[in-house]
Design a protein that fits this description.
single chain, about 160 residues, alpha+beta, two-stranded antiparallel sheet
Length: about 160
Amino acid sequence: MTGGRRTADGAEGEGGRDSGVGGSKKEEADSGWRMADRSEGVATAPLSGLQPTAYSLKPSVSSSALYVLDEPTVGLHMADTQKLIQVLQRLVDGGNTVVVIEHDLDVIAEADWIIDLGPEGGEGGGRIVAQGSPEEVARKARVSHTAKILNDFLEQRSPRSAA
């Protein structure tokens, strides 16, 4: 590994796909995603970085909400990914439900529950091949590409016991 983070599909890099940062406003709107506050019924501006994400994801104090995020780490620096994980955890701690579609192993490893679709992409996928906590999914390396890579990732993260 060269210092970038590793994703569940085995790729290395700081941000993965182009996030649209630095493009025109139309390109940013087309490639970004919007977060709607159900209580206000108003969508926020497209999100292209962590700071707007953190503010846009503030939960309503009156009720819990469902948040669905599609690859929110695209374009984020590794330090910002850790901040995003903290924001997502606060949302969950506040009684909200957070669903994240993600390939970043740092985010996957922090999930309460993983649903791994596969075994391949496209026509070769679409079936649940593993589900459970990150540790449970990691033990299913024979049936899941994600599980194999996640298992290696979790082993590297866990503190080594003194010999």
